[in-house]
């Protein structure tokens, strides 16, 4: 997790995911949502060869 911001009742969390030379960021209203958004972002930028392994 990179960090969070906003008022306590309206937090926005930011998550970073690194895999080799690739990096993806995800934001969300919960840590779980931010983490899932980062994972989806990573899947969208990875080459197809790496997804099959």
From TrEMBL:
PROSITE patterns: DS_RBD (PS50137)
UniProt keyword RNA-binding, yes or no: yes
InterPro entries (UniProt xref): dsRBD_dom (IPR014720)
Membrane spanning residue stretches: none
Pfam families per the UniProt record, alphabetical: dsrm (PF00035)
Keywords (A to Z) from UniProt: RNA-binding
Residue ranges annotated for the DRBM domain, each copy included: 1-48
GO molecular-function term, one example from the UniProt record: RNA binding
Name this protein carries in UniProt: Doublestranded RNAbinding protein Staufen -like protein 2like
Species the sequence originates in: Caligus rogercresseyi (Sea louse)
């Amino acid at each position: 997790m990179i960090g969070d911001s906003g008022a306590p009742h309206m937090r926005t969390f930011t998550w970073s995911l690194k895999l080799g030379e690739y990096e993806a960021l995800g934001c969300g209203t919960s840590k779980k949502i931010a983490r899932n958004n980062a994972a989806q972002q990573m899947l969208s930028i990875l080459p197809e060869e790496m997804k099959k392994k």
